[in-house]
Design a protein that fits this description.
This protein is an alpha+beta fold and 78 residues long. It contains 3 helices and 2 strands.
């Protein structure tokens, strides 16, 4: 006879998406963050950060301001 096993799986915590991690860091920053600052804080590659900020802009969670020289975008929470 076969013995039936009943194994209960532990509830594993959900891993945060890159967009969520980037958004959390932007929310914590009072003066906003530039891409290079987000890369240093998160440890993600520059391309992944740009993709995450592009997604967050399309879903209207962040807004973009520019530095005084109008070169570097600074991201703020809406």
């Amino acid at each position: 006879m076969k013995v039936k096993y009943s194994v209960e799986m532990e509830e594993l915590p959900r891993v945060k998406k890159q967009e969520e991690v980037v958004f959390d860091h932007i929310c914590k920053a009072k003066d906003g963050l530039m891409n290079t600052e987000i890369v240093k804080l998160t440890g993600f590659g520059a391309r992944r950060v740009r993709e995450a900020t592009l997604y967050l802009k399309t879903v209207r969670k962040i807004k973009v301001g520019y530095c005084r020289c109008h070169h570097a975008p600074i991201y703020y929470k809406l």
